[in-house]
């Protein structure tokens, strides 16, 4: 959100461009739609690290063969509430939306449904999939491994990915309760941004290559788990939970063994694992009881007094506010985004984004 | 673990005392056994805040009528994978173990099972219940609300409880992967301990009564969520997830509205909500695939180099080590514990603990 704004584009036009660019790489309509939907969801809500900036990366991975344009996805319902989706080394986004869809179908019957996904790839923001469940009236959770960027507590080097936890719960009169958080304090691209502008990082979020605390983005070698040097055992434990759910339950490699997302090799599939869980609130108490309880909770939460000059928000509130603003004003692109999308348009012979 | 050690007792003798003391308060055998099991599990693992020190509190709550000695517990299986347990204002521990039992039964059939528990009371350490699932070969999760001790991000006052997240995953050759963490950096009783010995608290974990950072235990009015003043929105979001799962899904009051655990009123039931989730790893991939994957993950984790003078551990490793030591040497009591247990023995006419 601190980027330079070089131009703006409507969500509609951006979606059109994304779908066309992906179709040029032989991606089928459903998959192209899923990628556009996930990236637009993130870009509209202000999660710029997981929005439109990722498209050029996905295109490179498709062109290199790391990601299959026409994967043989295969879902197996193993028990009434559980299933496994083999994503066939395709795009992670259609895999994620299909997993949520299957989990919802199972939750309809049994109250809950969960799907482990294997042989997948980067799926954008985990929150998109949890949110999809909440939009349909279910609680949703989504987890994913990623390559090593975050230290263990008291470790010298990166071991876990930024392993996100996403949780969304439906709210009858209003937007869902939406958590989508990395289990590190900051994302790695924050370090890269601060390097570029030579800005000091907050304390207790990164370490140098021997595991020592630093605030210098140039010597920062890896991230600390949430909780920092003193309480990072909690962030690391959560990252490990995400790892066990996403990698062990899908039989995929854990983050430390994954090929790096931004490495040289754009040919070898990474074999990412995800995990999705859906619950029907009405399967525990009467739907109205749940709806009253969460509404009362959020009402109390939003009424709490704030520290001078700050504001108390429920998770997601900042994102819905950003979404309303961007739906009105357009989605911002920085100068690097503008150049990357111009290049894509030329290379793939897609009508350029109409920027304003 | 920094307590003064006034005496030690074997887990066996301590369990015998707990069961007898509870039986004197008209608690039935199954419930007394559940309380003893949960408190011993915590005391053996070194989680002293949730171990033997809680028995006198439970006895007071039973004698005051806040907790029913003979509750009418009622389980309803609402859908194949979900259920609701009305704990009848009884002890939280038998409710917790029964909920895990039911969830395991459902997971046997459908791959997963979850139980929301309402009209319950304090259940000790959340980890006990997740651990029980893991001991039986399942993944377990446990969540619970508590009365307000932790601020929202940028809030001036306490709103959430220390809302724990517990997660345990079975490991074929070894102890389970076990996370049991409050969503604040430190527990409130750490503040009380530091007050007593006039010791400065770590920075970024507590605030004064206007929400300003302090390290003085005497002016500390509430806890910050995990992540501290800068990244506490993550800890607060996790606490909120726990609140929604435990309170909204059980139709109970959220933490901000709960009667305080240590308040004057020992007569009115508190109406605590818990939430338990069990999954069968073999319901997603073949059991052996899961077992190999989690073993490989933990092997890599434990082999990571540590910062000078520290050690890299998997969540739970410290606890298993403590348990082995305490099983050999006995469970330590500080002087306050010794006095409290002597008093209980007299008041309830139970044979005193044989202390060494």
TrEMBL record, chains A, B:
Q: Where does the record place a coiled coil?
A: none
- What keywords were assigned to this record? Oxidoreductase
Signal sequence residues = none
SUPFAM superfamilies from the UniProt entry: L-sulfolactate dehydrogenase-like
* InterPro entries (alphabetical): Mal/L-sulf/L-lact_DH-like_ah (IPR043144), Mal/L-sulf/L-lact_DH-like_NADP (IPR043143), Mal/L-sulfo/L-lacto_DH-like_sf (IPR036111), Malate/L-lactate_DH-like (IPR003767)
* Keyword Oxidoreductase among record annotations: yes
Q: Report the family membership.
A: Belongs to the LDH2/MDH2 oxidoreductase family.
The record ties this protein, via PANTHER family, to: MALATE DEHYDROGENASE, OXIDOREDUCTASE-RELATED
What name does UniProt use for this protein? Answer: Ldh family oxidoreductase
What organism is the protein native to? Answer: Modicisalibacter tunisiensis
